[in-house]
Amino acid sequence: MQLKNKKNQTPHSRHRSGFTLVELLVAIAIFAVLSALGWKVFDYLIKVKERNTEHEVNLGQLQEAYQQVLRDTVQAVPLTANINSDIQPALVLQNGRFNFSKTGVTDPLQQGISPDERVEYQYRADEKKLYRLKYRNLNSSGRDQPESSVLLNGVSQFEIVVLNPNESTAWPEGQVDLNDATQKQILPKGIKIKLMVKDVAYEWIFSLLNTDYLKLQNSNQNNNSNNPT
């Protein structure tokens, strides 16, 4: 009986186990490439999510500002304001300053709150903010402080023009006799607001025709004509 000599077995006949150094290096290289690609994709998704979140916040602020201006302009009324014994026109647009009279304030507790107030939009370029100032009464002294709130942030450009129907950067316009109270009670047809927010340009147009107020005026005029003194 003849025995086989294990020493005579060739290396190729032995069972191989484990990985070679080259195989490990190749595997590590592939893993590193896949990890880098995965991180780039993950980082891109995070940035997209952040941009979408920022866009949603900006859009929400724009919608709130637009709705606030819409409420104010819908309630604009041709009423003068007595500010520190100076009769102001119903709407003033002079040298970038813009304010007007509005109505619609409710008084559910019967505290004697005036239904009318004065609203002003004030743009501060150094802060890139648009402010809304509110005077609780059309008749006030120069010492009365308005309620101030930020209407919009990140505003790099801001401009208001009146429409009557043509655009104008000043109101009252033309040769208006400011000593005539009836001339001070005239409102333009509307206003146009041009603004730049976060490098995006917007243009808003609002009507200043308060139909409810006009109906009330016409009703009072009809009652007066039907009941002469």
UniProtKB/TrEMBL annotation:
Q: Which UniProt keywords apply?
A: Cell inner membrane, Cell membrane, Membrane, Methylation, Transmembrane, Transmembrane helix
Pfam families hit by this protein: N_methyl (PF07963), T2SSJ (PF11612)
What start-end ranges are recorded for coiled-coil regions in this protein? none
Q: Which family does it belong to?
A: Belongs to the GSP J family.
Subcellular location(s): the record lists: Cell inner membrane
- Stated name of the protein: Type II secretion system protein J
Q: Which organism is it from?
A: Acinetobacter terrestris
- Please list every transmembrane segment annotated in the UniProt record, as residue ranges: 21-42
